[in-house]
Design a protein that fits this description.
It contains 14 helices and no strands. With 367 residues, the chain is mainly alpha-helical.
Length: 367
């Protein structure tokens, strides 16, 4: 019995101790809560202090923040889905702006023919005649253009550029390297192509391939008159066919009135009745003087090509050389006008004898 009572007393003491410990724990928790509440209240009281700091921020930061806020406000609002959107749409229709793609076109610099140490091919009479017999689309002209300028030429500008070419414009420092490149490029041509190029340049076209390449490079380095006449084949002359354009039909020619024809024929008879030939122009006098000598030196060239060559030279002839033929033409023209005036005066003063008067005189003689 004594033992059981002692055990009960011990258990009661333990229970009391546990209760006291629980109370102490609750008291601690309450104290911690009160401290936390007091700290929060203190922080709330101290919140106005950062406002003063914001006011003291630099103007650059303030502007940056304002710009960010404006960008955020400019952003497009969230679009409503098609199922959530209202069935009836009001207001103006919003059109999307089309973005056009602009291609930047870089203009190529205009090609300029640099001056060399020789004469221009257009100033060499024999070479100029050969260039006239070709077109810019001919293979030989394209090969010769590439040999002179190391570039592909446009069909309409090949002949003009070759006429201005007067030799390779190489410096002493780059001459050997550039000639080596041209030798390799020209050496890729066939024998027939090399001979055709030499023929256009009025050079000898016989020998091995290396000799042809060396001869062509020597001429292109410093072009000069070789003395060989131009050999233009008559079969090479081209006749451009006149083909009507699409959609253009030939218009019917109207018959001219008979009266106008008679008037024109009458005027022609009056002019031809004078019987005086008009004097030749300055160009015709120039051709008359130069053509015979040019024929002797160029037997194989046709007269039409020679005349064309002289007409081209006449366009670029100096004024002092032209004056000789202009003065001669003026003298002949003055004589022609005087002769025409005399002939017209004589025709106007001529007397007409009537046939009846002649008959009467004859009858009087018989009596």
């Amino acid at each position: 019995m004594a033992n059981s009572e002692e055990e009960e007393v011990a258990e009661a003491e333990v229970a009391e101790e546990e209760k006291e410990m629980a109370k102490e724990a609750e008291a601690k928790e309450a104290a911690e809560v009160e401290e936390a509440v007091e700290e929060g209240a203190a922080e709330e009281e101290e919140e106005p202090a950062p406002k003063k700091v914001k006011k003291q921020e630099p103007k650059a930061k303030a502007k940056a923040k304002a710009a960010e806020e404006e960008e955020e406000s400019d952003e497009e609002p969230m679009r409503v889905g098609t199922l959530q959107a209202p069935l009836v749409v009001t207001g103006a229709r919003e059109r999307k702006k089309t973005e056009t793609y602009v291609v930047e076109v870089l203009e190529k610099a205009e090609f300029v023919v640099l001056k060399g140490k020789g004469k221009a091919l257009g100033k060499l009479a024999n070479v100029s005649a050969m260039l006239d017999s070709k077109t810019g689309s001919d293979d030989v002209m394209q090969h010769l253009y590439h040999a002179c300028f190391s570039r592909k030429g446009q069909k309409l500008k090949v002949k003009a550029a070759l006429r201005e070419f007067s030799g390779f414009p190489f410096d002493a420092s780059t001459r050997d390297a550039e000639l080596a490149k041209r030798t390799v490029a020209i050496g890729k041509r066939s024998m027939d192509e090399l001979k055709q190029m030499l023929k256009v340049c009025c050079q000898v076209s016989g020998g091995s391939k290396d000799e042809l390449v060396a001869r062509l490079l020597e001429f292109l380095g410093k072009p000069s008159d070789s003395g060989i006449s131009a050999k233009v084949d008559s079969a090479v002359k081209r006749k451009r066919a006149t083909t009507p354009k699409k959609g253009s039909a030939k218009k019917p020619t109207k018959a001219k009135p008979v009266a106008k024809k008679s008037e024109a024929s009458g005027k022609a008879k009056k002019d031809s009745a004078v019987g005086i030939k008009k004097p030749p122009s300055a160009l015709e006098l120039y051709l008359k003087e130069r053509l015979p000598a040019l024929k002797l030196k160029n037997d194989e060239v046709s007269e039409a090509d020679l005349e064309k060559h002289l007409k081209d030279k006449w366009k670029t002839l100096a004024a002092d050389k032209k004056s000789k033929f202009d003065d001669e033409h003026k003298v002949l023209l003055k004589k022609y006008d005087e002769a025409v005036a005399k002939a017209k005066a004589a025709a106007a003063n001529a007397t007409i004898v009537d046939e009846e008067e002649d008959g009467d005189e004859d009858e009087g003689d018989d009596e």
